[in-house]
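Record format v2
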Amino acid sequence: MAQGQNRSEHTHGLLFLTDEQLRKGIEAMFFAYRGFTADPDRILAEKSYGRAHHRALHFIQRSPGTTVNNLLSTLGVTKQSLNRVLRTLICDGLVLNEVGTKDKRQRHLSLTDAGRELEQALSNAQRDRMRTAYRQAGAEAVYGFCTVLEAMMDPELKKHYDQLTGGDIV
Amino acid sequence: MAQGQNRSEHTHGLLFLTDEQLRKGIEAMFFAYRGFTADPDRILAEKSYGRAHHRALHFIQRSPGTTVNNLLSTLGVTKQSLNRVLRTLICDGLVLNEVGTKDKRQRHLSLTDAGRELEQALSNAQRDRMRTAYRQAGAEAVYGFCTVLEAMMDPELKKHYDQLTGGDIV
DNA sequence: ATAATATGTCAGTGTTGTTGACATTCCAAG
DNA sequence: CTTGGAATGTCAACAACACTGACATATTAT
Protein backbone atom coordinates (compact mmCIF):
# COMPACT_ATOMS: atom_id res chain seq x y z
CA MET A 1 0.00 0.00 0.00
CA ALA A 2 0.92 3.62 -0.47
CA GLN A 3 1.43 4.11 3.22
CA GLY A 4 4.32 1.71 3.24
CA GLN A 5 6.11 3.72 0.63
CA ASN A 6 5.71 6.92 2.55
CA ARG A 7 6.88 5.30 5.70
CA SER A 8 9.95 3.89 4.00
CA GLU A 9 11.06 7.40 3.19
CA HIS A 10 10.70 8.20 6.81
CA THR A 11 12.76 5.24 7.94
CA HIS A 12 15.60 6.47 5.77
CA GLY A 13 15.47 9.50 8.03
CA LEU A 14 15.43 11.84 5.08
CA LEU A 15 12.24 13.48 3.95
CA PHE A 16 12.75 15.34 0.69
CA LEU A 17 10.92 18.62 1.08
CA THR A 18 10.72 21.30 -1.57
CA ASP A 19 10.24 24.93 -0.68
CA GLU A 20 6.87 24.68 -2.41
CA GLN A 21 5.74 21.94 -0.05
CA LEU A 22 6.88 23.93 2.96
CA ARG A 23 5.24 27.09 1.64
CA LYS A 24 2.02 25.18 1.23
CA GLY A 25 2.13 24.08 4.84
CA ILE A 26 2.76 27.66 5.91
CA GLU A 27 -0.25 28.89 3.96
CA ALA A 28 -2.36 26.03 5.29
CA MET A 29 -1.53 27.15 8.81
CA PHE A 30 -2.43 30.75 7.99
CA PHE A 31 -5.78 30.00 6.37
CA ALA A 32 -6.73 27.27 8.81
CA TYR A 33 -6.04 29.45 11.83
CA ARG A 34 -8.47 32.01 10.48
CA GLY A 35 -11.13 29.32 10.34
CA PHE A 36 -10.08 28.04 13.73
CA THR A 37 -10.90 31.35 15.41
CA ALA A 38 -13.78 32.48 13.20
CA ASP A 39 -16.67 30.85 15.09
CA PRO A 40 -15.71 31.86 18.64
CA ASP A 41 -14.88 35.35 17.35
CA ARG A 42 -18.48 35.80 16.26
CA ILE A 43 -19.78 34.93 19.72
CA LEU A 44 -17.17 37.12 21.40
CA ALA A 45 -18.03 40.10 19.23
CA GLU A 46 -21.65 39.98 20.45
CA LYS A 47 -20.50 40.24 24.06
CA SER A 48 -17.77 42.75 23.20
CA TYR A 49 -15.06 40.40 24.35
CA GLY A 50 -11.96 39.47 22.37
CA ARG A 51 -9.81 36.46 21.69
CA ALA A 52 -7.78 37.17 24.82
CA HIS A 53 -10.89 36.62 26.95
CA HIS A 54 -11.54 33.34 25.20
CA ARG A 55 -8.02 32.13 25.86
CA ALA A 56 -8.24 33.05 29.53
CA LEU A 57 -11.59 31.31 29.95
CA HIS A 58 -10.31 28.24 28.13
CA PHE A 59 -7.22 27.72 30.25
CA ILE A 60 -8.97 28.52 33.51
CA GLN A 61 -11.60 25.94 32.64
CA ARG A 62 -8.81 23.53 31.76
CA SER A 63 -6.99 24.03 35.07
CA PRO A 64 -9.49 25.22 37.67
CA GLY A 65 -7.78 26.80 40.67
CA THR A 66 -4.71 27.72 38.64
CA THR A 67 -2.66 30.69 39.76
CA VAL A 68 -2.14 33.93 37.85
CA ASN A 69 1.55 33.15 37.34
CA ASN A 70 0.81 29.77 35.83
CA LEU A 71 -1.77 31.24 33.48
CA LEU A 72 0.73 33.92 32.50
CA SER A 73 3.35 31.45 31.35
CA THR A 74 0.77 29.32 29.58
CA LEU A 75 -0.55 32.25 27.61
CA GLY A 76 2.85 33.83 27.12
CA VAL A 77 1.75 37.40 27.73
CA THR A 78 2.65 40.03 30.30
CA LYS A 79 0.81 40.30 33.58
CA GLN A 80 -0.43 43.75 32.59
CA SER A 81 -1.98 42.35 29.47
CA LEU A 82 -3.56 39.42 31.27
CA ASN A 83 -4.69 41.59 34.14
CA ARG A 84 -6.72 43.83 31.85
CA VAL A 85 -8.60 40.79 30.58
CA LEU A 86 -8.98 39.10 33.97
CA ARG A 87 -10.29 42.27 35.58
CA THR A 88 -13.18 42.51 33.15
CA LEU A 89 -13.97 38.80 33.50
CA ILE A 90 -13.96 39.03 37.31
CA CYS A 91 -16.04 42.22 37.30
CA ASP A 92 -18.52 40.62 34.91
CA GLY A 93 -18.84 37.64 37.24
CA LEU A 94 -17.36 35.04 34.89
CA VAL A 95 -14.19 34.30 36.84
CA LEU A 96 -13.59 33.74 40.55
CA ASN A 97 -10.45 35.09 42.18
CA GLU A 98 -9.73 33.44 45.55
CA VAL A 99 -6.83 34.01 47.90
CA GLY A 100 -4.69 30.91 48.31
CA THR A 101 -4.94 28.89 51.50
CA LYS A 102 -1.37 27.63 51.62
CA ASP A 103 0.23 30.72 50.11
CA LYS A 104 -1.91 33.78 50.63
CA ARG A 105 0.00 35.73 47.98
CA GLN A 106 -1.41 33.55 45.27
CA ARG A 107 -4.83 34.00 43.69
CA HIS A 108 -6.60 30.90 42.48
CA LEU A 109 -8.70 31.36 39.38
CA SER A 110 -11.83 29.42 38.51
CA LEU A 111 -14.98 29.87 36.47
CA THR A 112 -18.37 30.81 37.86
CA ASP A 113 -21.50 29.21 36.44
CA ALA A 114 -21.83 32.12 34.04
CA GLY A 115 -18.17 31.73 33.08
CA ARG A 116 -18.61 28.04 32.42
CA GLU A 117 -21.62 28.83 30.29
CA LEU A 118 -19.75 31.25 28.04
CA GLU A 119 -16.70 29.01 27.89
CA GLN A 120 -18.94 26.14 26.82
CA ALA A 121 -20.55 28.21 24.10
CA LEU A 122 -17.16 29.28 22.75
CA SER A 123 -15.69 25.79 23.02
CA ASN A 124 -18.70 24.18 21.38
CA ALA A 125 -18.42 26.49 18.40
CA GLN A 126 -14.72 25.75 18.05
CA ARG A 127 -15.12 22.02 18.66
CA ASP A 128 -17.89 21.75 16.07
CA ARG A 129 -15.56 22.92 13.34
CA MET A 130 -12.76 20.75 14.71
CA ARG A 131 -15.02 17.69 14.81
CA THR A 132 -16.19 18.23 11.26
CA ALA A 133 -12.62 18.64 10.05
CA TYR A 134 -11.49 15.55 11.97
CA ARG A 135 -14.29 13.41 10.58
CA GLN A 136 -13.66 14.67 7.09
CA ALA A 137 -9.94 13.95 7.30
CA GLY A 138 -10.06 10.63 9.14
CA ALA A 139 -8.34 9.22 12.19
CA GLU A 140 -4.91 8.78 10.66
CA ALA A 141 -4.88 12.34 9.40
CA VAL A 142 -5.82 13.54 12.87
CA TYR A 143 -2.92 11.62 14.34
CA GLY A 144 -0.54 13.22 11.85
CA PHE A 145 -2.08 16.62 12.42
CA CYS A 146 -1.33 16.55 16.13
CA THR A 147 2.12 15.06 15.60
CA VAL A 148 3.24 17.87 13.29
CA LEU A 149 1.72 20.56 15.48
CA GLU A 150 3.52 19.21 18.53
CA ALA A 151 6.79 19.21 16.62
CA MET A 152 6.24 22.88 15.74
CA MET A 153 5.92 24.07 19.33
CA ASP A 154 8.63 25.88 21.22
CA PRO A 155 9.98 23.54 23.93
CA GLU A 156 8.81 25.92 26.64
CA LEU A 157 5.24 25.91 25.31
CA LYS A 158 5.38 22.18 24.65
CA LYS A 159 5.80 21.68 28.40
CA HIS A 160 2.55 23.47 29.09
CA TYR A 161 0.86 21.52 26.34
CA ASP A 162 2.07 18.18 27.70
CA GLN A 163 1.05 19.12 31.20
CA LEU A 164 -2.45 20.00 30.05
CA THR A 165 -3.02 17.10 27.72
CA GLY A 166 -1.35 14.43 29.80
CA GLY A 167 1.11 13.60 27.05
CA ASP A 168 -0.91 10.84 25.41
CA ILE A 169 -1.62 10.95 21.70
CA VAL A 170 -4.89 12.41 20.46
CA MET B 1 -12.72 9.83 29.66
CA ALA B 2 -13.33 6.72 27.60
CA GLN B 3 -9.93 5.42 26.63
CA GLY B 4 -10.70 2.57 24.28
CA GLN B 5 -10.65 4.54 21.06
CA ASN B 6 -8.15 3.65 18.41
CA ARG B 7 -7.74 3.94 14.70
CA SER B 8 -9.88 0.91 13.94
CA GLU B 9 -12.92 3.10 14.35
CA HIS B 10 -11.87 4.86 11.21
CA THR B 11 -12.77 1.82 9.14
CA HIS B 12 -16.30 2.07 10.45
CA GLY B 13 -16.51 5.49 8.81
CA LEU B 14 -17.49 7.08 12.10
CA LEU B 15 -14.86 8.72 14.20
CA PHE B 16 -15.76 8.75 17.87
CA LEU B 17 -14.34 11.96 19.25
CA THR B 18 -14.41 12.92 22.90
CA ASP B 19 -14.42 16.53 23.97
CA GLU B 20 -11.00 15.87 25.45
CA GLN B 21 -9.59 14.85 22.10
CA LEU B 22 -11.05 17.90 20.43
CA ARG B 23 -9.81 20.15 23.21
CA LYS B 24 -6.35 18.72 22.73
CA GLY B 25 -6.42 19.59 19.04
CA ILE B 26 -7.53 23.10 19.90
CA GLU B 27 -4.66 23.54 22.31
CA ALA B 28 -2.24 22.05 19.80
CA MET B 29 -3.33 24.69 17.29
CA PHE B 30 -2.88 27.45 19.85
CA PHE B 31 0.59 26.44 21.01
CA ALA B 32 1.81 25.48 17.54
CA TYR B 33 0.73 28.77 16.01
CA ARG B 34 2.84 30.59 18.57
CA GLY B 35 5.84 28.59 17.43
CA PHE B 36 4.85 29.06 13.82
CA THR B 37 5.16 32.85 14.07
CA ALA B 38 7.95 33.08 16.65
CA ASP B 39 10.95 33.02 14.30
CA PRO B 40 9.73 35.56 11.72
CA ASP B 41 8.51 37.76 14.58
CA ARG B 42 12.06 38.08 15.88
CA ILE B 43 13.32 39.28 12.50
CA LEU B 44 10.38 41.64 12.07
CA ALA B 45 10.94 43.19 15.49
CA GLU B 46 14.49 44.18 14.50
CA LYS B 47 13.18 46.09 11.49
CA SER B 48 10.18 47.44 13.41
CA TYR B 49 7.75 45.66 11.15
CA GLY B 50 4.88 43.48 12.25
CA ARG B 51 3.18 40.28 11.21
CA ALA B 52 0.96 42.18 8.81
CA HIS B 53 4.03 43.22 6.83
CA HIS B 54 5.18 39.62 6.68
CA ARG B 55 1.82 38.46 5.37
CA ALA B 56 1.76 41.15 2.69
CA LEU B 57 5.31 40.31 1.56
CA HIS B 58 4.50 36.61 1.52
CA PHE B 59 1.43 36.82 -0.67
CA ILE B 60 2.93 39.41 -3.01
CA GLN B 61 5.91 37.12 -3.47
CA ARG B 62 3.52 34.26 -4.03
CA SER B 63 1.52 36.10 -6.72
CA PRO B 64 3.72 38.79 -8.26
CA GLY B 65 1.70 41.43 -10.07
CA THR B 66 -1.38 40.76 -7.98
CA THR B 67 -3.86 43.59 -7.46
CA VAL B 68 -4.73 45.28 -4.21
CA ASN B 69 -8.25 43.87 -4.29
CA ASN B 70 -7.02 40.33 -4.70
CA LEU B 71 -4.56 40.74 -1.85
CA LEU B 72 -7.37 42.18 0.29
CA SER B 73 -9.58 39.15 -0.06
CA THR B 74 -6.67 36.79 0.46
CA LEU B 75 -5.66 38.48 3.69
CA GLY B 76 -9.22 39.13 4.79
CA VAL B 77 -8.63 42.65 6.09
CA THR B 78 -9.97 46.06 5.14
CA LYS B 79 -8.29 48.17 2.50
CA GLN B 80 -7.47 50.80 5.10
CA SER B 81 -5.65 48.26 7.20
CA LEU B 82 -3.76 46.84 4.25
CA ASN B 83 -3.03 50.29 2.86
CA ARG B 84 -1.24 51.35 6.02
CA VAL B 85 1.05 48.34 5.71
CA LEU B 86 1.54 48.64 1.95
CA ARG B 87 2.38 52.31 2.20
CA THR B 88 5.29 51.69 4.54
CA LEU B 89 6.54 48.81 2.41
CA ILE B 90 6.36 50.93 -0.75
CA CYS B 91 8.00 53.92 0.94
CA ASP B 92 10.75 51.68 2.29
CA GLY B 93 11.38 50.37 -1.21
CA LEU B 94 10.35 46.77 -0.56
CA VAL B 95 7.23 46.70 -2.73
CA LEU B 96 6.59 48.05 -6.22
CA ASN B 97 3.23 49.60 -7.03
CA GLU B 98 2.58 49.82 -10.77
CA VAL B 99 -0.49 51.16 -12.54
CA GLY B 100 -2.21 48.48 -14.58
CA THR B 101 -1.80 48.49 -18.35
CA LYS B 102 -5.19 47.04 -19.21
CA ASP B 103 -7.10 48.63 -16.35
CA LYS B 104 -5.35 51.71 -15.11
CA ARG B 105 -7.39 51.78 -11.90
CA GLN B 106 -5.67 48.67 -10.68
CA ARG B 107 -2.27 48.66 -9.03
CA HIS B 108 -0.07 45.67 -9.57
CA LEU B 109 2.09 44.76 -6.61
CA SER B 110 5.47 43.09 -6.75
CA LEU B 111 8.61 42.86 -4.65
CA THR B 112 11.77 44.82 -5.24
CA ASP B 113 15.14 43.15 -4.73
CA ALA B 114 15.17 44.45 -1.17
CA GLY B 115 11.64 43.15 -0.67
CA ARG B 116 12.57 39.73 -1.97
CA GLU B 117 15.54 39.71 0.37
CA LEU B 118 13.46 40.37 3.47
CA GLU B 119 10.74 37.99 2.36
CA GLN B 120 13.36 35.30 1.88
CA ALA B 121 14.81 35.90 5.33
CA LEU B 122 11.35 35.65 6.91
CA SER B 123 10.34 32.64 4.87
CA ASN B 124 13.59 30.83 5.56
CA ALA B 125 13.13 31.23 9.28
CA GLN B 126 9.58 29.93 9.08
CA ARG B 127 10.43 27.10 6.70
CA ASP B 128 13.30 25.95 8.88
CA ARG B 129 10.96 25.24 11.75
CA MET B 130 8.43 23.71 9.37
CA ARG B 131 11.05 21.45 7.82
CA THR B 132 12.29 20.29 11.21
CA ALA B 133 8.75 19.54 12.33
CA TYR B 134 7.96 17.71 9.08
CA ARG B 135 11.09 15.56 9.31
CA GLN B 136 10.42 14.81 12.94
CA ALA B 137 6.82 13.81 12.27
CA GLY B 138 7.30 11.90 9.03
CA ALA B 139 5.66 11.93 5.63
CA GLU B 140 2.39 10.34 6.70
CA ALA B 141 1.93 12.82 9.49
CA VAL B 142 2.58 15.70 7.09
CA TYR B 143 -0.11 14.40 4.77
CA GLY B 144 -2.58 14.23 7.64
CA PHE B 145 -1.51 17.63 8.91
CA CYS B 146 -2.39 19.33 5.62
CA THR B 147 -5.60 17.34 5.22
CA VAL B 148 -6.97 18.43 8.58
CA LEU B 149 -5.91 22.04 8.11
CA GLU B 150 -7.62 22.18 4.74
CA ALA B 151 -10.79 20.79 6.27
CA MET B 152 -10.71 23.56 8.89
CA MET B 153 -10.68 26.44 6.42
CA ASP B 154 -13.67 28.56 5.60
CA PRO B 155 -14.81 27.76 2.04
CA GLU B 156 -14.05 31.31 0.94
CA LEU B 157 -10.48 31.13 2.21
CA LYS B 158 -10.11 27.59 0.90
CA LYS B 159 -10.60 29.00 -2.61
CA HIS B 160 -7.63 31.31 -2.18
CA TYR B 161 -5.60 28.48 -0.74
CA ASP B 162 -6.42 26.15 -3.64
CA GLN B 163 -5.67 28.86 -6.14
CA LEU B 164 -2.27 29.50 -4.59
CA THR B 165 -1.24 25.93 -4.01
CA GLY B 166 -2.63 24.53 -7.25
CA GLY B 167 -4.73 22.01 -5.39
CA ASP B 168 -2.18 19.21 -5.46
CA ILE B 169 -1.38 17.30 -2.33
CA VAL B 170 1.34 18.48 0.05
C1' DA C 1 15.10 42.58 59.54
C1' DT C 2 15.59 41.97 54.92
C1' DA C 3 15.05 39.93 50.47
C1' DA C 4 12.35 37.69 47.25
C1' DT C 5 7.79 36.33 45.44
C1' DA C 6 3.02 36.94 43.73
C1' DT C 7 -0.03 40.03 42.46
C1' DG C 8 -2.24 44.40 41.11
C1' DT C 9 -2.21 48.94 39.00
C1' DC C 10 -1.05 53.28 36.42
C1' DA C 11 0.71 55.52 32.43
C1' DG C 12 2.44 55.46 27.93
C1' DT C 13 3.30 53.34 23.29
C1' DG C 14 2.89 50.46 19.06
C1' DT C 15 0.69 47.24 15.78
C1' DT C 16 -3.22 45.90 13.68
C1' DG C 17 -7.67 45.61 13.06
C1' DT C 18 -12.33 48.24 12.54
C1' DT C 19 -15.98 52.24 10.46
C1' DG C 20 -17.16 56.11 8.02
C1' DA C 21 -16.41 59.62 4.77
C1' DC C 22 -14.55 61.44 0.67
C1' DA C 23 -11.60 62.09 -3.71
C1' DT C 24 -9.72 60.30 -7.90
C1' DT C 25 -9.38 57.62 -11.82
C1' DC C 26 -11.18 54.87 -15.16
C1' DC C 27 -14.23 51.33 -17.53
C1' DA C 28 -18.59 50.43 -19.41
C1' DA C 29 -23.49 51.02 -20.42
C1' DG C 30 -27.02 53.96 -21.75
C1' DC D 1 -21.08 61.90 -24.02
C1' DT D 2 -22.81 61.47 -19.72
C1' DT D 3 -23.43 58.74 -15.90
C1' DG D 4 -22.93 54.88 -12.75
C1' DG D 5 -20.07 52.00 -10.55
C1' DA D 6 -15.66 49.70 -9.68
C1' DA D 7 -10.81 50.10 -7.98
C1' DT D 8 -7.92 52.58 -5.35
C1' DG D 9 -6.01 55.91 -1.98
C1' DT D 10 -6.39 58.67 2.09
C1' DC D 11 -7.99 60.99 6.39
C1' DA D 12 -9.80 60.60 11.02
C1' DA D 13 -11.34 58.20 14.94
C1' DC D 14 -11.51 54.25 17.67
C1' DA D 15 -10.85 49.55 19.94
C1' DA D 16 -8.34 45.26 21.13
C1' DC D 17 -4.31 43.62 22.72
C1' DA D 18 0.26 43.31 23.04
C1' DC D 19 4.53 45.81 25.12
C1' DT D 20 7.66 48.52 28.73
C1' DG D 21 8.60 50.76 32.97
C1' DA D 22 7.53 52.13 37.46
C1' DC D 23 5.46 51.52 41.75
C1' DA D 24 2.44 49.54 45.66
C1' DT D 25 1.05 45.76 48.69
C1' DA D 26 0.87 41.58 50.84
C1' DT D 27 3.13 37.46 52.07
C1' DT D 28 6.70 34.16 52.45
C1' DA D 29 11.50 32.78 52.89
C1' DT D 30 16.10 33.50 54.57
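Helices of chain A lie at 2-11, 19-46, 51-62, 68-75, 79-91, 113-137, 139-152, 155-165.
The longest helix of chain A spans residues 19-46.
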